[in-house]
Amino acid sequence: MTVTEDGNRAEDARPLVDAAPGPRSWQRAFADLRQGWKQRTLWGYLGWQDIKQRYRRSVLGPLWISISMGVIALAMGLLYSTLFQQDLHTFLPYVAVGLLVWRFVEGCVLEGSEVFIANEGLIRFLPAPLSLHVYRLVWRQTLFFLHNLVIWGILMIIFPQPLGWSLLLAIPAFVLLVLNGGWIAILSGIVATRFRDIPPIIASLTQLLFFMTPIVWSYDFLRENAAVAARARLIELNPVMHFVEIVRRPLLGSPTVWHHWYIVGAITVVGWAAALICLRNYRSRVAYWV
Hints:
By secondary structure, this protein is mainly α. It is built from 13 helices and 2 strands. It has a two-stranded antiparallel ribbon. A hairpin with a 5-residue loop joins strand 1 and strand 2. Helix 3 crosses helix 4 and helix 3 crosses helix 6. The radius of gyration is 24 Å and the shape is globular.
């Protein structure tokens, strides 16, 4: 308080200071995502180093990513084309692209459930946003995807497909894959950090999901079979199917089925809403849980 010449008291002019946001605030949750994105030079370098470390002292290096993918695609394509009596010219690219998308989804799901557990030391001793580890994971899976895309290019030369302008739809389709990989890693990573039984449960369910997704078998083939057509439509309850289809159809020149896009869009919105709520409420506890 100050006293003026006429004896009246006047309050000190003090600057108003906004209260700092609490640990459970939307401001801190979005700030974590922004700060993590600003450090893209760091997580970009770390993601690339993860791949180099995995294949260090190897003669072919990261080329083994494409080689292993090509061998698996060839073996499964030959086997299942014979079992289902499918034309190898169309079925082998079908299987290869399905595996290409599946590898990305599987990597985000399995590694996402352990993204914070695996980075325990960095989280405890490095003052960095949690989203940095998620960006690093998604970037690493993107590099794997780009390496495996070489197999698709080779198959398009050996087994030409009716590609057209719809091929460009593969770009926004992959962007949707990346966005969904982000929320999956955030949500499953935080939950698995608190409950350590979650990663093995997710691993078991992922193996089951592979056989329930039309990767080595054709959904259209089953739907055209009158005996199982009604039950085949239940496959659309599998969300991974829609992610595979929005990428596979443009890469193979197949007609676009827009309802797959609508479903993926809805999953993206709902998934990110759930991930942001989880990040807002439990972000500050992850360092203690790991």
